[in-house]
Amino acid sequence: MLLMFELRCNYRFGTIVSARSITHGCILILITGCGLAGLVGCEKTRLSSPASPNNQNSDSKEVFATEIAPEPTAKTNPDRLISNGPTDNSIQAGAESNEWTPDAPAALSSRSVPEADSFTVMTWNLEWFFDDFDGDNFSKLAKDQTAPSRAQWDWKRDAVAASIHSLQPSVVALQEIEGRRVLWYLAKAMERNHAMSYREICIEGDDVFTEQDVGFIYRSDTDDGKSNSPEAIQVEPTLASVFGRTAAMKRDDLMADVSKHLAVEYEIVRGDDTERVTVFNLHLRAREEAIAVRTKQARTVHAWLASKIRAGENVIVLGDFNAEDTTIPAEPTSDMAAVCGLDTGDSDDDLVDLLDRLPIKSRQTHLLSGKAFDRILVSPSLLIDDPNRVDLVLAKFERLPELNVKGSVDVPQEHWDSYWQISDDNRDISDHWPLMATFDFK
Fold it and tell me: Disulfide-capable partner of 280 in 82, 194, 263, 300 (CB 3.0 to 4.6 Å)?
């Protein structure tokens, strides 16, 4: 498909730093190297710092500047509109409760940081991670969900940074973010408060109603001293992509557009060993009544990745699936079955839901009782140790409510109706709980 783009050039670095699609299609962004590659529908870019909100171009929220700019001087969540309580096939069904109660005390410092030679991937829906500046928001909903003040935005940003620092993951996939600028603020908070270096990756999505996006931050260097060991890994993003449906996919009534997604291919290096992993971050349509659309979105995501899975490549799909089906393996006609490839008739393109590594009572990932909206799926290549070479293999999978919960778990309705009235010491960061997978070289 021939695509046309409006290109914004950074002449200082000799690279194109942003592109706005004029026609719908697949946008590929190469994020290493310099200069043009002569590729249709692609750009090479260097990740630069977001522009000041006061300098945002009116026709595009994601305009990047060559100079670092200073930070600028009742919550509503679509996920919340899902019916309360468990369904018949809920993870809460049965005698055991899956509610989580924090230990006393639930100190983040009690957790051990993964080894420097492990590759760790976290997913976390941050629930309206919007700063206090609404001048670059256009919908009423997005404006209403900006942080009420600079102090309250600082609290949320720094709370997220502290939680991430406690485990220092290699890659963090985040949902419900405002855009690249807030990820840059988060990365700067990691550096300022915790002497850790992270960089951000974000491509603006198509959700104009909520204006929420998805994005990544990743460990970018070894300045914090954790990686002094020669066995420490390095994480290098080599390709960031957003996808569109082909003409054939649009004619197929079984698929739908996915407005919030981002795929990044990472090169994971440990000494002389190198593995490549595609990490696909998504946020699918919410609400129980949206199951038909969500299943079509899930089927589209799998179609984009199926060839990689069949080829034995390392693929991770993670984020907020908003799935109502909590059975594992998934019900054959469910959205989770579609995204895992269980409805294709070909087991060679299946993904594996890591939630089944947790006890049934520990699978809840959301403030709503019995809900497991958040998942990490992996290709079989990440579960099976190849005896003929050194490769990445899953070592551990964790649910991490203690990174999110402050004091006791928030009362759901109070959390949503009076979020900023709850004291800082008792306010949960989000209504979602993080998940993390650890992979070791073997």
Answer: 263
